[in-house]
Amino acid sequence: GAGVSQSPSNKVTEKGKDVELRCDPISGHTALYWYRQSLGQGLEFLIYFQGNSAPDKSGLPSDRFSAERTGGSVSTLTIQRTQQEDSAVYLCASSPDRFQPQHFGDGTRLSIL
Amino acid sequence: RKEVEQDPGPFNVPEGATVAFNCTYSNSASQSFFWYRQDCRKEPKLLMSVYSSGNEDGRFTAQLNRASQYISLLIRDSKLSDSATYLCVVNPTSGTYKYIFGTGTRLKVLA
User: Fold this and answer.
1) Shortest Cα distance, chain A CAs vs residue B101, angstroms
2) Which residues of chain B fall below pLDDT 70?
3) Given A3, A15, B11, B49, which residue has the most CB atoms within 10 angstroms?
4) Exposed e or buried b per residue across B77-104, where buried means at least 16 C-beta atoms within 10 angstroms of its C-beta
5) Which residues of chain B lie closer than 8 angstroms to A35, CB-CB?
């Protein structure tokens, strides 16, 4: 079956621009996570969505970061006024519920020039 | 102390060898444990869950030691294709969503 789909695979943009990253979770998965992974580093939790509940945004590093999940399915992560330190791989994961293991998408490799 | 700690390695082992990694966690109330594998420039993929009684999946065996607060992963008869980074993942509290990922242990299996 289809896995977690993320787009774009790669994004190169200039400092100060806004970017939008998309995640399409596995059908039927109610839990959706966004992580960030810098080169040689572990995964950094950003935000979590569970069904129609209010998301946990406690991992977002600044107010330039925001995320939405429409209709309990597709999610978008938006970074406004990008900075060079935002360069990383942004990974999305979904799971049937918060107790189950997560399945990851291929990630979006974001490079800020 | 970090919530989840792993030896970064690399562990360089010959094909056919047995290798084991440990991962320590700080929260004694942690409930769920997993091992993920991550290939270079790829996404993490679930390798196996770790159950209290220990569990095995082919050449891979996972163990949980609650008293000493660590989990382990044993790989028998290592293959070249086992070369990857192995991530330890812990859910610190039952029913929460915030899974803590270790920074990983790098394994290189040599021909």
Assistant:
1) 6
2) 94-96
3) B11
4) ebeeebbbbbbbbbbbeeeebbbbbbbb
5) 101
